[in-house]
Design goal:
heterodimer; A: 289 residues; mainly alpha; MetI-like fold; 11 helices; B: 293 residues; two-stranded antiparallel sheet
């Protein structure tokens, strides 16, 4: 019936191919256009082939300091990734049993995914603004020199920026953990416990190896979602912008293929991370047998 | 059993996760609500309890002699984007999921093709938006193609920086939000139910309409929630793909923030959030999300 290679099947295959073309086609065009010669513009036809625009990007050109934005995004991405893995795995373990506040926390997790990002970004920005005012008030009231002389703001990439991004990456992590534990065979764990293993040892020797491939998945979400995050970060990064924020600014100012070159580079970074993650996932799955 | 009570509860492991949500989710949203009643001037926000921020948003909105007010116009335009995007992501997402779930036989292929659809989600949205420029621009591929075939005799301006390009980008970016939950629902359908329908003489279309779609309802609802909420709160896609000319609620909040009119922005945020939650509440009445994971 459904599996028969009938007419519908071929229509579906054709439709799916179109969809994949729709997904990847545009990105492919900017990769192509980023390798243009120095006379190239924003649209086809290709004017020669060179790596001119990448050199231009590397040199800094007329563009803002892309190098340090890239570095900031990478560092933040790694921190978000590590925290997402640790926090969502531990919360995932907790959620296997009902605990005080578990329903509220679950609600917050889902709500965080669907709350408009600009609202959350605004809220976090407001919170840190009030925190600033409070700190300054402390400084003047109690005459704390350090605050009066050098305090500027609590808003920053590794305070408000990090927190705002975690509200976006953690729900993905926890939902993956739910999916993992819903299909988890508890008998291995019980066997370990019956053999006298402590809870920590049970986790380390039995549970962790079983969920390790999924943890790679969480890490992948943690890094890539942070590395590309824009809406939630838009109000809370303080002085230093991340790469997507710079990129968004460039869309209105840059009129040369240098922006395509940048697009090619970030897409390449994303694809490398995805490739490495998938390879690790397959490797871990194979190792387990 | 006494020793069990001495063991620290596993529930404690959720504390770090909870703290993040207290500090970066609950408190910020509560503050937004509180500050929406505050006063402000050019330099600072002033604790108060006033309704001016709200009444300003709805200024002239209930005066039906005049044209529709800015707020209503903006929401109307956002709702239209929501609806069109929802429609296309649902149709495309459903058929992609349908293909993956029912026509791809090997699990390996299923995973590989599913990944193929997911990978773009892990790349930059901004890049995926600007990658439409060489295709849709004045001298873009689409215009070139249409000109050379003689279908049109002047470059079409509505292809880029328009409502069309905004919807296109939304569909491009967010169809995955439909595919994943619908695919998930489809994979749970017991194949024998379909066999049974087939044996009872149902044709392909009848199976699709009377068996598969009803069983996919939870997936469809979850996907719809994601797509609708993401479009409701958007300001980046509408900004970039609309050439910064088309209004959105997110954009209003963004602009008010840049002028430090924070209580005004907060009031807009509260209304946006309330509307979004209302839509979700209506939709979740239909299903239990937790069972679907």
């Amino acid at each position: 019936m459904l599996n028969k290679k009938n007419k519908t099947y071929y229509i579906c295959v054709f439709f799916f191919c179109l969809f994949v073309l729709f997904l990847y086609g545009p990105t492919f065009t900017i990769v192509l256009l980023s390798f243009q010669g120095p006379d190239g513009g924003l649209t086809f036809p290709l004017n020669g082939v060179s790596t001119y625009w990448f050199k231009e990007l590397w040199r800094g050109g007329s563009v803002v300091d892309i190098g340090s934005a890239f570095e900031r995004s990478m560092i933040l991405g790694v921190i978000v990734m590590v925290l997402t893995v640790i926090l969502s795995v531990s919360a995932g373990l907790a959620f296997r049993k009902k605990f005080w506040g578990s329903d509220t926390l679950f609600f917050a997790t889902v709500a965080s995914l669907i709350v408009p990002s600009i609202v959350l970004s605004l809220g976090v920005a407001l919170q840190f603004r009030l925190l600033d005012d409070f700190t300054k008030w402390l400084g003047t009231t109690f005459d704390i020199n350090y605050i009066n002389e050098s305090f500027q703001t609590t808003l920053g990439m590794f305070t408000s920026g990090l927190g705002a991004q975690l509200t976006w990456t953690l729900p993905f992590g926890l939902l993956i953990m739910f999916a993992v534990f819903n299909r988890f065979d508890k008998s291995y764990e019980e066997a370990a416990r019956d053999l006298g293993a402590t809870p920590w040892k049970t986790f380390k020797e039995v549970v962790f190896p079983l969920i390790a491939p999924s943890i790679i998945g969480i890490a992948l979400f943690g890094f890539t979602l942070s590395y590309d995050e824009l809406a939630r970060s838009s109000q809370v990064m303080g002085a230093g912008n991340t790469l997507p924020l710079e990129l968004r600014g460039l869309t209105t100012t840059v009129t040369t293929p240098v922006i395509y070159a940048l697009g090619t580079v970030t897409t390449f970074v994303s694809f490398s991370v995805i490739g490495i993650s998938i390879a690790c996932y397959i490797w871990l799955k194979r190792k387990r047998g | 059993m006494k020793f069990l009570k001495l063991k620290p509860s596993v529930g404690l492991l959720s504390i770090p996760y909870s703290l993040i949500f207290v500090f970066f989710f609950f408190i910020p949203l509560a503050l937004t609500f509180i500050i929406s009643f505050w006063d402000y001037n050019e330099y600072s926000i002033i604790p108060d309890f006033i309704f001016e921020n709200y009444s300003y948003i709805f200024k002239d909105c209930f005066n039906f002699q005049k044209d529709m007010c800015v707020t209503f116009k903006t929401y109307l335009s956002t709702f239209i984007f929501c609806f069109i995007t929802w429609f296309f992501t649902l149709i495309i997402g459903f058929f992609v999921a349908y293909f993956l779930a029912f026509y791809v036989n090997s699990v390996t292929w299923q995973i590989a093709l599913f990944l193929l659809c997911t990978i773009p989600f892990w790349t930059s949205n901004v890049i995926r938006m600007i990658s439409w420029i060489p295709l849709l621009g004045r001298n873009g591929l689409v215009n070139d193609f249409l000109l050379s075939t003689g279908i049109i005799d002047a470059p079409q301006e509505w292809l880029l920086y328009s409502g069309f390009s905004i919807v296109l980008a939304f569909v491009h970016l967010y169809t995955l939000f439909m595919i994943v939950p619908i695919f998930n629902s489809m994979m749970r359908i017991d194949k024998s139910i379909i066999e049974a329908a087939y044996d009872n003489g149902a044709n392909g279309l009848q199976i699709l309409w009377n068996v598969i779609i009803p069983l996919c309802k939870p997936g469809i609802v979850i996907g719809s929630i994601f797509v609708i909420t993401v479009v409701m709160g958007d300001f980046i896609t509408i900004g970039i793909m609309g050439g910064q000319q088309i209004p959105s609620i997110g954009k209003i909040i963004y602009v008010e923030m840049s002028y430090l009119q924070l209580p005004a922005a907060a009031a807009n945020a509260v209304i946006l959030l309330a509307l979004t939650l209302l839509i979700i509440w209506i939709m979740t009445k239909m299903i239990d999300i937790r069972k679907e994971l």
